[in-house]
Amino acid sequence: MSKRLLNAISFRIGLIFSLSVITILVVMGFVIHQQVVHHFENQNKNQILGKIELVQNILRQNPDNTPELNSYLKDALVGHHELYVQVERPLGHTIFNSGPTLHDIPSTQNMWTNWKIQETHYQGYIYQNTTSNTPQLVRVIIGIDRTEHLLFLTAFRQHLFIIGLIGTLCLMLLGSLAAWRGLRPVEKMAEVTTRISAQHLSERLKIENTPTELRSLSIAFNEMLDRLEMALAKLSDFSSDLAHEMRTPLNNLMTQTQVCLSRSRDVETYKEVLFSNLEELERLAKMVSDMLFLAKAEYNLNLNNLKEIDLTEEVSLLFDFYDAIAADKNIKLHYTGTAKVIGDPSMLRRAFSNLLSNAIKYAQANSTIFIKLEQHASSSIFTIQNEGVTLLKDQQARLFDRFYRVDTARQRKEDGTGLGLAITKSIIDAHAATIHVESDHGLIRFVIQFKNSPLK
């Protein structure tokens, strides 16, 4: 028997089913056999007890051992050729028997017993007592031939075995067929999975005809395929965006270098080219650094410096840093409320800085950026709002994707790598918090909700 067959679920189900059926049939056969045996024994005992009463009555009516007594006893057995009767009065003196004299009498008295004469099996009763009208000790042995019953029981056991064997084989076959039929949906699931590849993720399992036991698995499998398809689409977009983002600075570097080397130039020109190249290299370095941070975030960021942070102080420091940049666009910075959270100060500072920098970058001139802090019993909320172009729902859904920009026409007009919001989300996720964006009536709001938990 191969290992593959032993590991098959259908084989295991069929085996368990077969063993269960065999056990049930054996128990049923044993119970039925015992009931038949019990029926025959009760039938024999009732017949023997009736004859004992008859023989006792004849002995009481005939206290002397006369020829008439022998005749009376023979008449009592007319029509009962299967009975064996032996009467001794006094004890040891046989006055009547219906067959060969039983010399090797079982030692039991006034009890049921079995014995064998030649090839005949008897079930009987040995009665030993005195009669009321004589002090002589009387022993009456009455038995019934149970050879036919034994032959019937032997044949009955054989028939039970044959019927049970045939029934077991049929049920094993039907059980295996039912198990194979019941696992057919699993095979269909396997057929679907074999057709799935990176280029073909549209296959889905049909839920309508799926058995109840496999329905939750099918739903989970389809949801997994949805996530994989979405992740693969994002990965494809990320690869394309990455190539696009790196192509521009690399082209700038190559173009400027080629133009500079096309002919001899003075030292100042070379310096200008080197400074320009340095800016592009710094941009590439920042992009690589951000990508490394995101790659690390995918395998969970280590928050080793957790402490209680006063968000009011953090916002004040951010306003001091970005005040001059906001003033260039005549943007005012304003905050209200207080809140405290548990987190890594440097990482949260980076996340808040990305949000404020992004708000200043895309806010309309002569507007105000609002930050609202809220402290609740179970959570702390950080909200930053700026005036800008209202975002559509699909734009809001992709805003935290890497290299995603709402307005592709101004990708090079604004500084940045397009990874700021993606980094912010990874930091917020690492703190077991949530972040989402809302946009309506020309306002854009980023809302971060922290769960309040004691510092470990």
UniProtKB/TrEMBL annotation:
Keywords: ATP-binding, Cell inner membrane, Cell membrane, Kinase, Membrane, Nucleotide-binding, Phosphoprotein, Transferase, Transmembrane, Transmembrane helix, Two-component regulatory system
UniProt key word RNA-binding: no
Lineage, opening ranks: Bacteria, Pseudomonadati, Pseudomonadota, Gammaproteobacteria, Moraxellales
Histidine kinase domain ranges (all copies): 241-454
PROSITE patterns the record matches: HAMP, HIS_KIN
Any one Gene Ontology molecular-function term assigned to this protein's record: phosphorelay sensor kinase activity
Protein purpose: Member of a two-component regulatory system.
Residues annotated as transmembrane: 12-32, 160-180
Membrane topology: Multi-pass membrane protein
Pfam families: CusS, HAMP, HATPase_c, HisKA
Protein name from the UniProt record: Sensor protein
Compartment(s) where it occurs, according to its Swiss-Prot or TrEMBL record: Cell inner membrane
